[in-house]
Structures are given as structure tokens and as C-alpha cells.
Specification:
This protein is mainly alpha-helical. The protein contains seven helices and no strands. The structure holds heme C (HEC). Heme C binds next to α4 and α6.
Length: 131
């Protein structure tokens, strides 16, 4: 009986994680609530973010985050429209978290962009793409 219970538990666990993947990007509440260490409205912070963006992100997301970079067209997944209200409605912490963890074709930048200020500067640049 114990073994059957264990098997049921394992099956439920596998089914549960598959369902979680379908829903897309799971962002922990703690990450969502993270607060920037930089002033995201500061022009020089946005300029710093732009430099990092051009180096690491533009190839897929395009210079203005419309997903129209040269590599963007070759992707299977939709990189999204960062100027949209839907994208901009996400918290600063969510954008930070998604950038460093990645998902599928979106690389994880935790090891490539280690400077905390650079990470938040990227969030500042993504905010500046709002329509
Ligand atoms: C190789 C192509 C590629 C590069 C380079 C790339 N991304 Fe992405 N990005 C993607 C794709 C594809 C998605 C959509 C992933 C998914 O939903 O499966 C994505 C999604 C995202 C999202 C979430 C979008 C949303 O609608 O919530 C953020 C934020 C993001 N990228 C930020 C960045 C930043 C910042 C950089 C540079 C440091 C970067 N990306 C570099 C391909 C890329």
C-alpha cells in the first residue's frame, strides 16, 4: 500500500511540474518583489543599460525590444514586444529575474552579467522602451 501511495505521489509530482511548464515563466513571489538598487528613471542608468542591451540582447530582441533583431527571426519562441502594456505591467523584479534565469531559447544571464548595477540598468532600459 505504501508503495502505491508513493507511486501516486510521484505521478502527481511529474504531472504538476509539466503543468507548471505549460503556464510559462514561474517567477517566485520573492523575485517579483525585488527592488532596484539603481534609479531606473535616471538617464545615465538608462544609457548604461542601453550599452549592455546592445551587447547582449539586441540580436534577438531588437534595438527597441520589438523582437525584430537579426537573430529574433530565427527563434521558435516569440521574444515578445517590450513596448507593450502587457510587458510593462510586470514588476521590476520580474524583469530582473527573467533576465538572469532565462527560459528555453532565452539564455540565462546570471553568469554573463554579474554586476548588480548592470542588471538593474538593463531593467531601466527595458522600462524606457514603453510606448
Ligand atoms: C538568443 C536570443 C535571445 C537573447 C540574446 C536574449 N533573449 Fe530575452 N528572450 C528570448 C526569447 C525567445 C524569449 C521568450 C522566451 C519564452 O517565453 O519562451 C525572451 C524573453 C525575455 C524576457 C521576458 C519577456 C516577457 O514577455 O515577459 C525578458 C525580460 C528578456 N527576454 C530579457 C532579455 C535581456 C535583458 C537580454 C539581454 C541581457 C535578452 N533577453 C537576451 C530570446 C533572447
Amino acid at each position: 500500500m505504501k508503495q502505491i501511495m508513493l507511486m501516486v505521489a510521484v505521478i502527481l509530482l511529474i504531472a504538476g511540474s509539466a503543468a507548471a511548464q505549460d503556464k510559462g515563466w514561474e517567477v517566485p513571489a520573492k523575485a517579483k518583489a525585488m527592488k532596484p538598487t539603481e534609479n531606473l528613471a535616471d538617464k545615465s542608468v538608462i544609457a548604461d543599460g542601453k550599452a549592455v542591451w546592445y551587447k547582449h540582447c539586441k540580436a534577438c530582441h531588437g534595438s527597441k525590444g520589438l523582437g525584430d533583431g537579426p537573430k529574433g527571426a530565427m527563434l521558435k519562441a516569440d521574444p515578445g514586444d517590450f513596448s507593450s502594456a502587457k510587458f510593462q505591467a510586470q514588476t521590476d523584479g520580474t524583469l530582473y529575474y527573467k533576465t538572469i534565469t532565462g527560459k528555453g531559447e532565452m539564455p540565462a544571464y546570471a553568469k554573463k552579467i554579474t554586476n548588480e548595477d548592470d542588471r538593474w540598468a538593463l531593467v531601466a532600459y527595458m522600462r524606457s522602451l514603453k510606448k
